[in-house]
Amino acid sequence: MDLLTELLTTDFRPLDRKAADLYLGAVAQVKPDALTLPTPCPDWTLHGLLRHQVSQDEGFAAAAQGDGGRLAVWRGGDLGDDPYAAAKASLDLVTRAFAGVALDAELVLPEIRDGGAFPTSLAISFHFVDLVVHAWDVAAAIGAPWEPSDELVAASLKVAAIVPADGRGPGDSFAPSVPSADGATPGNHLLALLGRDPAWR
């Protein structure tokens, strides 16, 4: 079975929920005075990164409900006074939306390439890998450990292998790939594939 066929026939919803737990575990450690810290994503402070993920959750939820075509639904994330509560609420929202969509449906994702519809399984895999890698971004920003399971890393590597090289840059979730160090762990290889320097501090 080729990689794309494998991804198209995988139900990523259980993995997405595990990735959400990984991400929330990192967000739970963020103190209010840390929100202005830089992150491995040069255009985003920690506040900006957390807001980005809330916006993505809301956008993917809208897409699963047939309303993903409007860019506004991907841009309205609000952390309010409690970033953790906002992160949990948006992840609960998207988890419920994913649970209610058929895997043979198509989700409109206007921010990916030139927009258009993607099979549900592939769309959820994009959300999944976002969470795994943004969990590292948060953890790196605050000096906390990032300890995804082998299962999450292995699945993320498969998704990362199909992330297009174009559309990566300032303001995007992923940057151009960087070389992996000799003997890099699978987790560090994943980070490098998606434009992160695992040594960033």
UniProtKB/TrEMBL annotation:
Q: What positions does the domain Mycothiol-dependent maleylpyruvate isomerase metal-binding occupy? A: 21-139
Looking up Pfam families in the UniProt record yields: MDMPI_N
What superkingdom does the record give?
A: Bacteria
Q: Which Gene3D superfamilies match?
A: dinb family like domain
Query: Which stretch is the leader sequence?
Result: none
A molecular function (GO) held by this record is: metal ion binding
* Name of the protein: TIGR03086 family protein
Show the taxonomic lineage: Bacteria, Bacillati, Actinomycetota, Actinomycetes, Streptosporangiales
